[in-house]
Amino acid sequence: MNDITTISGRLDAVGLKVAIVAARFNDFIVNRLVDGAVDYLERHGLDRASITLVRVPGAFELPLVCQKLAAGKKHDGILALGAVIRGATPHFDYVCAEATKGLAHIMLEHGTALGYGLLTCDTIEQAIERAGSKAGNKGVEAAAAMLETLRVLEQL
Length: 156
Ligand code: INI
Prior knowledge:
Elements: E1 18-23, H1 27-43, E2 51-56, H2 62-72, E3 77-85, H3 91-110, E4 113-121, H4 124-129, E5 131-133, E6 136-137, H5 138-153
Parallel strand pairs: 1-2, 1-3, 3-4
Antiparallel strand pairs: 5-6
5-nitro-6-ribityl-amino-2,4(1H,3H)-pyrimidinedione binds at residues 23, 25-26, 57-61, 82-85, 87, 91-92, 95.
């Protein structure tokens, strides 16, 4: 592999500005994702004062606010955090699909690294497992992915 030019992202958050957009719906889960993401970014050198936390009503509103932030170009990376938990109606499917499509679209439209930290779970137990217990913390994973991606983009 020595002869291959390899580009990879340093996990170094020093000097960056990051926006976290977090849904208030299921906040007992989402707050754990926010805590995990902030802790990860701080441990990788981000100054706490360089984080802007924006609260939105639910996952469905994440794309609109992320789009406005991406268009504003004031942040190096954006992190979208939320938790959709299946109920008795098809509502879950619509919210998950539109939020996910919207977030992917924003990344491509604006070329902004956007961490996808939206839990889409069948049960509350699954959400708890992914918010800092048995299955890790998806807020941390989304923050790590955002950081790595924005550092890759800088080099292209
Ligand atoms: N929003 C969520 O973030 N999680 C959910 O589990 C959820 N459920 O199940 O309904 C949810 N709905 C609200 C939605 O995101 C919008 O905020 C609402 O429809 C107003 O536009």
